[in-house]
Amino acid sequence: MLTHLGAIFCNNILNIFSTGIYQPGDESKLSKRPKAILTGVDIYTKNGIRGFYAGLVPMLWRDVLGSGLYIWSYQYIRFNYHGYLDLNPGAFETLMAGGMAGVLSWIPVVPLDTIKSRIQADDVKNPIYKGMIHCGTQLLKEGGYINFYKGFQMIALRSFIVNATMFYAYECMLDCWNYIRIKPR
């Protein structure tokens, strides 16, 4: 159990620092211009340096919460898929655990991602939303809880397939590495 908590802790610390690095690029996804440099210049011209970091707080919450749940659920499901501790899970358990971990990690994250996207699309100089909580309450008033989960079915389907494949490839690479490293010469 300590190993899983250690992995979650390390992953979350890395996310806190990496969010500040890749956040500016996330803003450019909402722009209508195809060129990243022109988009960056446009964001800077309209909003200054602050424009690159619009939505940083919800993005930080999204990444830390999602990553912690992602790693923990993968480890837990992989080793306990059949209802008991299995120290040698097979390919099926790995694929199912990876897919389910991907879907589970998005459940609490999608509302935060929706809030982040709304804040990023908002005008920095004359904002509609006063912050993360104000944006969330406005979304709730506009359409209820369903407003936070629009498009979740496609996110879940994509997430299951991508994460099942990714974790299976990861475990195969670990097996190969261990075989090469332990192989007698």
From TrEMBL:
Name the SUPFAM superfamilies on file: Mitochondrial carrier (SSF103506)
The record's subcellular location field reads: Mitochondrion membrane
> InterPro entries attached here?
MCP_dom_sf (IPR023395), MCP_transmembrane (IPR018108), Mitochondrial_Carrier (IPR050567)
How does this protein sit in the membrane?
Answer: Multi-pass membrane protein
Where is this chain primarily localised? mitochondrion
Please give the Gene3D superfamilies that the UniProt record associates with this protein.
Mitochondrial carrier domain (1.50.40.10)
Instruction: Spell out the residue ranges that the record assigns to Solcar repeats.
Output: 89-176
Q: What does the UniProt keyword field contain?
A: Membrane, Mitochondrion, Repeat, Transmembrane, Transmembrane helix, Transport
Going by the entry's taxonomy, the superkingdom of the source organism is recorded as: Eukaryota
What does the similarity note say?
A: Belongs to the mitochondrial carrier (TC 2.A.29) family.
PANTHER family from the xrefs?
Answer: MITOCHONDRIAL BASIC AMINO ACIDS TRANSPORTER, MITOCHONDRIAL BASIC AMINO ACIDS TRANSPORTER-RELATED
By what name is this protein known?
Mitochondrial arginine transporter BAC2 isoform X2
Organism of provenance: Neodiprion lecontei (Redheaded pine sawfly)
Coding gene? LOC107218804
